[in-house]
């Protein structure tokens, strides 16, 4: 306890702080003077909060101090020596709040600590236990837990507020939590006190900005819903569910005469008020921590039912049963008392609207009908406790806070379907809520007395008679307790608040997306309303939050709650007040008001902070100077003369209203001593006390911040007034369009829109600065919105200046002035008052100066920021940020002033040169720069008597001919857009002309100035204008050339090629150059690269075909305006060509696909093109006829040697002439019938020939007829003799290929294209350096122009961009580098080698897939692969000249000289032979493998069938039997085998047990592609076989073929390899010749011998 009472004065002495100075004083009574007391602390005070008789201080460092009457500790601590709260040390408190008789603190982690009186549960339940003591002497943590989520989560709190018997917490999710007692909690609950924080569900889904607590009511500032959602709350005609009928104040007073009831709230009769409130009537006694003192009620703090520790009431209790029954439509809706006398319902005049009920209304009515049978009899208690009202004239409150949630709806009334009856049921709710009812006669007498009192006091009723029906009907129509569209439950996601908890007054600084506070707010209130403090126009209580409709749209940014009155502060520095006005705390009229009413302030005062005490209000405002002033609303001591004059009036007043005193003025009074306090940053009130925090002006920093905030608030008030007085009335005028004209009307609305945007920004900024002042010690100066959102401010001012300038240029201010005179009328004086000194001339308002006046604020920003920067060292971050911001705003200020001058100059120019001809050039955004009316500029070689007038605008250069500037007449004019205009000075020569060269996309001309000065002037003006159009600052003053390369848009008019086309893209010196898009009116579009005015490079072109109603689409390379290079052309007919072009024609390699499979004619051609015709070797696949032609072409006709295969297996090779088979040829049918002879047409034989049958018989003679239909033969039939060997297949094979195109001549066009891409004219005719440069350029271009590349593809291209060391000799050391480069190059088609590989694969598959899968094409297919390797290797050797010839040995790298002697005696361990097959087959063959292996399989089909039959037969035998039959010696027979590490004996019946590892290895031969890989599999098989044989033999064993062959045959048999013959033949044909006679060659020979042995020999 001693530590707690220790004064800060005892701390270590230090210099008094300059910030956070605290002044406290008591509010004045009738005979008291206001006398502030300075509280001296050793550290700055960040925040102060006052309760009824105590207060809390938050000092720098998070330390909390208490002072005043600390009843929960039985202490009285003076404010001059506050006591430190030791238990909160180390908690880093960021916010403190004092309730009526309890305290709260908030840490930076969002934790809440409460202590003080806890009789109503306002301190919550401590975490350390569940004992609910009436006092909590030490701060205890109160956990706010969201139990709706799984698992339950701790809620982070950012703000708290406390009343007398309740506490509120605002979470980081902008949700509200409450605990304590009373209807001021806003909870749907029937149990009080509420010990643990509960969410206020009626505000769920809404963004709560700030909360405030009065004695028994609560206020909240809530962000408004978006317009589409907000409109649903208040539809124009239909009522929603939960709405109450609107009636004027007069109607409502008449209704109160009869029933004293408002359907928006809960009715509290006088008997209830007198008997239900458990409030103390004497002075509050000091409470002991564990009990209570004499005369105190254990439940004195509860507003509903008082409880002692055991949950029972200890006071005398009486209860008034109030039953609310909800009748359905058609029932008696009159108000009936116990005597049966009907009372008029206040809303009986609304019955006509019953039939127009909305669906929501019907839904609510059904719900109410279900609940209409329930009644509630709340228990109300009275006791002789302490008086909770410290003012003798403060009225008492009451509330039905014990109403269960199920009956909240029954406490509300809807339309006419409400019937209030006296309950005849003596029962009630069980527990503490049930009691015996009061005599019904007492209730009737109480109601009659109440009605009589209201009739006598109608003139001074709590319902404000000054607020007429218009204001009253604007109240929110919503049932408390009924979720409406205005309060959705989790319907709209809430924007999260900043993470810094406990911002004090800055807690209301809610960020609206861009970091600035929102002005679109609403004020919600709930709790007791007996003094009208809820602001709903009545004195009824609200069980749940309800929006104060009259404050919606008023931009409320802060609320404060006194004991029984409320205050609201708007962004326009206006204060609204309502509630009790017994002491003049409302600051306007002498009687209380129930609707918010604006406080009357003296001119020039702008309030920016406020607070409310028990019976006073304290306002902080801007005055005439920068230093803030204090305004006070309450009782004050008046001069003696004034008091004597008012004595008689006071006496009569007391007789009329003995409970009132009227010793106050209507307006708030300024406190003179506030000047001596320094710069006040915040105010606080509580009970009968006031407090302020102030700062000393050190180095002018504080005054500069206050000046910035004060000017911004003044500026926003001015903007709001202009908007209200001028812009809004004119915009709402019906004649605005005829008066201003269509063009000016549109511009005027643009001005209004930009004005509103600027005004909103300034309002939000001013509000943010007010928050900044409240917590200036906790903010960094670099977080000023002017610095954080500089771009936003600059852009807003730019748009506003442009809008006003455009309106001025078009001459809109003159008709606007006339229209304003018509619209404003008597308000013209108000507009004049808004004018600054230079904005009115002879009493008339200068609208131009008025609307330009906001631009001066930019200079003020710069000046104040510079002041702030002077307070810091130049090397600090703060100085740099402030100085940079100052320069930004000053630069923009000067720039906008130039724009203003340009607009004025342009307006005068059009005014001087007005006329129909010039009006075509008059545009809102166009500004005049200079003009040559004095003949200062003329075209070169112009006629002597011709008239030329040049006008330079900010966007175009206008040249008029035949013009007379003085008469505003010209015959023709040309407009040159500055974006496509190039200016170049012409060097002065002997001619003496001062010329300027002008270049445009379609013409060029030279202008001649009269003097050198005139030339420089025009050159500078032109360059600046062009620079500004292109996005530069336009500040270049030295004459010179503007950017030759730029991006612009231009519409061609005269160019023959681009006539009427619009181009958007890059330019170079007046010509289209770079990437861009050209669009023609007929629909043609080109998008791609240009060079020197023509398409050049990669581009995409769309060319509509009007006949087919489709478009041709080309994607590929262009050169000099024509399609040139590789590309893809999609024709409107459906054909697709992908290949090479030359001068717009198909030339070189290409593939043409015609039609689709579903059409009658479908074909694919791949081959060589010359001048758009098929010429050279090509493959034509006629899909419709099922034929494939592989041969030579000439002028789109088959001409030359060729091979034709059909889908029926017919093979033909021969010669073609003019698209027909003509001359000798060879035809082979499916059954091997062969004809070799003369052909005349397709499949037509005519002439001599030999027909050989499949059995070897032949027919030699003259043939005629078609092969498919029948032949006529005149010849000799030959049958071979028996002694002749049968070798017909071999003879046929020797004859095949006689007329086919040689393999090395088939795809020359593909390789030529690859050489061309490398920059070579022909094969090996080019510079190697150029080739590598072309490769690098191609790769780089592909990376830039292919945005959809995958990550792996980008990595490959990145590696290939680096040119390897191609000039070095290739040795065994760097050979692998070459191989790796080739592997990567072949992975991407963007590399020339990769494109070559991909194209060859495409051509190969087109040839030998489908119909081309004919077994007689095997030899040509193999030869074609070998030809690929040869041609490909030539290109590789050209790129890497260090590679040796095919089949040569790679040299070893030369060792260093020191090692040459050491290695000279060593023999070579091995050599590396380089061949095209070993280098390129691993790259090529895997992609060609499917069609090639298919041909091998077809060729070996018969032999394979024999082989497989033998395999199946041999595999039927067990292992030992098979080994024996194959002739394997028994010493090689395995006796044991290992299975999972366990040895098992091989029995005679075992199968697949011997040499299992060798068998499995050999089976892998089918998974490889290249011959080298297959040979490695064979080698591994031998190694595995040798490993299994070694344990069976003693010593080294040297294999002989007689032993090896039978053993390997066993392995082959058990391997069961399908198509082994195809595998063997593929290896035999394509294996590297260099290894045929080595070890691998012998192993392959063994496998081949095994295959032949198995296939041809009969094994018993």
Keywords summarizing the entry:
25% strand; 5-stranded antiparallel beta sheet; alpha+beta; 1660 residues; 19-stranded antiparallel beta sheet; 29% helix; single chain; 37 helices; 72 strands
Structure description:
With 1660 residues, the chain is of the alpha+beta class. The chain has a 19-stranded antiparallel β-sheet. Strands 3, 4, 5, 6 and 7 form a five-stranded antiparallel β-sheet that branches. It has a four-stranded antiparallel β-sheet with strand order 2-1-39-38. α10 (701-731) packs across α15, α12 runs antiparallel to α14 and α33 (1556-1563) crosses α35.
* Overall morphology: extended
- Sheet with the most strands, sense and barrel status: 19 strands, antiparallel
Rg over C-alpha atoms, rounded to the nearest angstrom: 51 Å
Question: Low-confidence spans: pLDDT under 50, at least 5 residues?
Answer: 1-13, 229-264, 268-361, 367-447, 453-510, 639-663, 1035-1041, 1464-1468
Average of pLDDT:
78
Number of helices: 37
- How much helix is in the residues? 25-40%
In total, how many beta strands?
72
Assess the beta-strand content as a share of residues.
Answer: 15-25%
Secondary structure category? alpha+beta
Determine the N-to-C terminus distance: 115 Å
């Amino acid at each position: 306890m001693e530590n707690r009472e220790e004064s800060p004065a005892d701390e270590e002495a230090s210099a008094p702080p300059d910030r956070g100075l605290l002044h406290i004083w008591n509010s004045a009574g009738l005979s008291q003077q206001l006398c502030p007391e300075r509280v001296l602390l050793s550290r700055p005070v960040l925040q102060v909060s006052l309760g009824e008789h105590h207060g809390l201080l938050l000092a720098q460092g998070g330390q909390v101090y208490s002072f005043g009457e600390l009843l929960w500790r039985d202490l009285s601590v003076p404010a001059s020596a506050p006591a430190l709260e030791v238990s909160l040390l180390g908690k880093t408190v960021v916010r403190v709040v004092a309730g009526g008789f309890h305290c709260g603190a908030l840490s930076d982690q969002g934790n809440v600590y409460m202590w003080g009186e806890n009789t109503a549960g306002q301190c919550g339940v401590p975490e350390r236990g569940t004992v609910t003591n009436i006092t909590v002497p030490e701060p205890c943590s109160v956990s706010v837990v969201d139990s709706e989520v799984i698992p339950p989560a701790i809620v982070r709190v950012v703000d708290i507020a406390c009343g007398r018997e309740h506490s509120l917490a605002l979470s980081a999710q902008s949700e509200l939590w409450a605990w304590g007692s009373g209807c001021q909690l806003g909870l749907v609950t029937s149990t009080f006190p509420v010990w643990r924080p509960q969410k206020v569900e009626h505000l769920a889904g809404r963004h709560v900005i700030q909360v405030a607590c009065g004695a028994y009511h609560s206020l909240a500032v809530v962000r408004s819903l978006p317009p589409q959602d907000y409109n649903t709350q208040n539809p124009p005609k239909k009522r929603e569910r939960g709405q109450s009928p609107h009636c004027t104040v007069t109607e409502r007073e008449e209704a109160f005469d009869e029933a004293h009831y408002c359907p928006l709230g809960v009715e509290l009769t006088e008997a209830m008020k007198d008997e239900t409130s458990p409030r103390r009537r004497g002075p509050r006694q000091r409470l002991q921590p564990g009990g209570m003192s004499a005369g105190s009620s254990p439940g004195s703090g509860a507003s509903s039912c008082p409880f002692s520790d055991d949950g029972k009431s200890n006071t005398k209790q009486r209860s008034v049963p109030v039953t609310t029954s909800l009748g359905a439509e058609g029932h008696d809706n009159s108000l009936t008392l116990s005597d049966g006398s009907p009372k008029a319902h206040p809303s009986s005049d609304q019955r006509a609207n019953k039939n127009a009920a909305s669906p929501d209304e019907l839904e609510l009515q059904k719900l109410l009908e279900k609940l209409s049978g329930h009644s509630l009899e709340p228990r109300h208690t009275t006791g002789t406790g302490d008086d909770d009202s410290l003012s003798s004239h403060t009225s008492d409150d009451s509330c039905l806070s014990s109403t269960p949630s199920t009956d909240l709806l029954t406490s509300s009334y809807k339309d006419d379907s409400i019937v209030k009856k006296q309950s005849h049921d003596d029962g009630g709710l069980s527990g503490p809520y049930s009691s015996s009812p009061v005599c019904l006669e007492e209730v009737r007498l109480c109601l009659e007395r109440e009605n009589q009192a209201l009739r006598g006091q109608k003139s001074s009723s709590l319902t404000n008679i000054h607020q007429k029906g218009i204001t009253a009907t604007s109240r929110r129509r919503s049932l408390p307790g009924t979720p409406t569209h205005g309060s959705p439950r989790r319907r709209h996601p809430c924007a999260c608040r900043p993470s810094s908890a406990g911002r004090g007054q800055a807690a209301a600084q809610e960020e609206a997306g861009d970091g600035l506070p929102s002005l679109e707010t609403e004020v919600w209130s709930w709790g007791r309303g007996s003094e009208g403090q809820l602001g709903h126009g009545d004195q009824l209580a609200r069980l749940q939050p309800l929006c104060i409709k009259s404050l919606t749209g008023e931009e409320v940014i802060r609320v404060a709650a006194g004991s029984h009155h409320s205050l609201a502060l708007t962004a326009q520095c206006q204060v609204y007040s309502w509630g009790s006005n017994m002491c003049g705390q409302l600051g306007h009229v002498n009687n209380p008001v129930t609707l918010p009413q604006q406080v009357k302030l003296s001119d020039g005062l702008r309030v920016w902070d406020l607070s409310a005490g028990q019976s006073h209000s304290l306002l902080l405002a801007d005055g005439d100077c920068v230093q803030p002033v204090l305004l006070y609303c309450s009782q004050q001591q008046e001069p003696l003369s004034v008091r004597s004059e008012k004595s008689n009036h006071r006496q009569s007043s007391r007789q009329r209203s003995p409970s009132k005193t009227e010793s106050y003025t209507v307006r708030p009074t300024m406190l003179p001593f506030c000047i001596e306090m320094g710069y006040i940053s915040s105010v606080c009130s509580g009970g009968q006390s006031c407090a302020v925090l102030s700062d000393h002006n050190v180095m002018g920093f504080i005054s500069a911040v206050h000046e910035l905030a004060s000017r911004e608030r003044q500026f926003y008030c001015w903007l709001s007034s202009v908007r209200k007085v001028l812009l809004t009335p004119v915009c709402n005028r019906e004649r605005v369009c005829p008066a201003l004209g269509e063009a000016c009307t549109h511009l005027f609305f643009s001005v209004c829109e930009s004005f509103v945007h600027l005004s909103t920004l300034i309002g939000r900024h001013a509000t943010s600065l007010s928050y900044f002042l409240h917590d200036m010690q906790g903010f960094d100066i670099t977080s000023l919105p002017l610095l954080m959102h500089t771009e936003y401010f600059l852009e807003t001012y730019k748009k506003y200046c442009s809008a006003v300038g455009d309106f001025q240029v078009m001459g809109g201010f003159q008709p606007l002035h006339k229209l304003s005179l018509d619209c404003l009328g008597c308000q013209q004086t108000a507009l004049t008052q808004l004018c600054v000194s230079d904005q009115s001339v002879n009493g008339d308002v200068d609208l131009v100066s008025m609307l330009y006046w906001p631009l001066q604020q930019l200079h003020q920003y710069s000046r104040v920021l510079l002041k702030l920067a002077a307070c810091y060292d130049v090397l600090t971050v703060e100085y740099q940020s402030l100085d940079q911001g100052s320069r930004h705003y000053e630069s923009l200020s000067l720039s906008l002033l130039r724009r203003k001058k340009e607009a004025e100059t342009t307006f005068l120019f059009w005014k001087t040169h007005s006329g129909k001809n010039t009006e075509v050039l008059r545009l809102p955004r166009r500004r005049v720069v200079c003009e040559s009316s004095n003949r200062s500029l003329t075209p070169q070689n112009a006629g002597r008597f011709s008239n030329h007038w040049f006008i330079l605008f900010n966007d175009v250069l206008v040249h008029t001919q035949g013009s007379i500037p003085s008469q505003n007449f010209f015959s023709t004019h040309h407009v040159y857009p500055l974006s496509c205009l190039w200016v170049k000075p012409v060097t002065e020569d002997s001619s003496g002309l001062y010329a300027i060269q002008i270049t445009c996309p379609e013409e060029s001309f030279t202008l001649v100035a009269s003097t050198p000065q005139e030339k420089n002037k025009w050159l500078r003006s032109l360059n600046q204008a062009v620079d500004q159009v292109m996005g530069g600052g336009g500040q270049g003053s030295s004459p010179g050339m503007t950017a030759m390369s730029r991006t612009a848009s231009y519409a061609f008019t005269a160019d023959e090629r681009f006539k009427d086309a619009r181009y958007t893209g890059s330019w170079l010196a007046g010509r289209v150059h770079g990437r861009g898009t050209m669009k023609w009116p007929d629909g043609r579009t080109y998008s791609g690269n240009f060079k020197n005015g023509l398409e050049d490079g990669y581009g995409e072109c769309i060319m509509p075909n009007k006949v087919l109603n489709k478009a041709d689409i080309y994607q590929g390379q262009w050169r000099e305006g024509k399609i040139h290079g590789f590309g893809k052309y999609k024709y409107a007919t459906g054909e697709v060509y992908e290949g090479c072009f030359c001068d717009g024609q198909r030339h070189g390699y290409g593939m043409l696909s015609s039609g689709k499979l579903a059409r009658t004619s479908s074909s694919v051609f791949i081959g060589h093109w010359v001048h758009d015709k098929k010429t050279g070797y090509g493959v034509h696949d006629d899909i419709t006829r099922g034929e494939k032609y592989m041969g030579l072409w000439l002028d789109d006709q088959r001409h030359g040697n060729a091979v034709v295969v059909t889908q029926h297996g017919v093979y033909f090779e021969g010669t073609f002439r003019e698209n027909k088979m003509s001359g000798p040829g060879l035809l082979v049918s499916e059954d091997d019938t062969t004809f070799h002879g003369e052909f005349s047409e397709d499949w037509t034989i005519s002439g001599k020939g030999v027909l050989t049958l499949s059995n070897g018989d032949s027919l030699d003679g003259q043939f005629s007829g078609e092969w498919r239909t029948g032949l006529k033969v005149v010849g000799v039939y030959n049958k071979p003799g028996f002694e002749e060997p049968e070798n017909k297949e071999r003879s046929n094979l020797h004859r095949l290929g006689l007329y086919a195109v040689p393999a090395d001549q088939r795809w020359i066009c593909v390789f030529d294209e690859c050489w061309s891409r490398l920059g070579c004219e022909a094969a090996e005719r080019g510079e190697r350096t150029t080739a590598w440069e072309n490769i690098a350029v191609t790769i780089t271009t592909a990376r830039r122009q292919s945005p959809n590349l995958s990550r792996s593809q980008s990595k490959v291209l990145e590696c290939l961009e680096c040119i390897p060391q191609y000039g070095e000799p290739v040795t065994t050391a760097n050979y692998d580098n070459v191989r790796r480069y080739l592997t990567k190059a072949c992975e991407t088609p963007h590399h020339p080698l990769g494109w070559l590989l991909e194209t060859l694969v495409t051509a190969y598959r087109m040839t030998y897939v489908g119909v081309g899968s004919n077994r007689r094409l095997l030899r040509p297919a193999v030869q074609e692969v070998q030809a690929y390797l040869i041609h490909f290797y030539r290109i590789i050797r050209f790129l890497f000249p260090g590679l040796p010839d095919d089949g040569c040995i790679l040299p070893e790298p030369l060792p260093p000289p020191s090692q040459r002697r050491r290695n000279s005696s060593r023999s070579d361990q091995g050599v590396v032979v380089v061949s095209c097959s070993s280098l390129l087959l691993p790259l090529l063959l895997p992609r060609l493998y499917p069609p090639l292996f298919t041909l091998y399989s077809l060729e070996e089909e018969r032999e394979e069938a024999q082989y497989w039959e033998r395999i199946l037969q041999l595999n039927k035998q067990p292992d030992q039997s098979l080994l024996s039959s194959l002739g394997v010696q028994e010493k090689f027979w395995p006796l044991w085998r290992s299975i999972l590490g366990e040895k098992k004996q091989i029995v005679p019946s075992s199968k697949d047990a011997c040499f299992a590892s060798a068998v499995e290895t050999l089976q892998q031969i089918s998974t490889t592609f290249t011959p080298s890989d297959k040979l490695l599999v064979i080698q591994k098989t031998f190694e595995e076989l040798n490993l299994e044989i070694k344990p069976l033999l003693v010593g080294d064993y040297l294999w002989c073929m007689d032993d090896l062959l039978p053993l390997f045959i066993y392995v082959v048999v058990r391997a069961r390899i399908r198509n082994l013959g195809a595998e063997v033949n593929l290896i035999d044909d394509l294996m590297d010749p260099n290894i045929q006679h080595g070890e691998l060659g012998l192993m392959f020979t063994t496998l081949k011998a095994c295959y032949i042995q198995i296939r041809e020999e009969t094994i018993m």
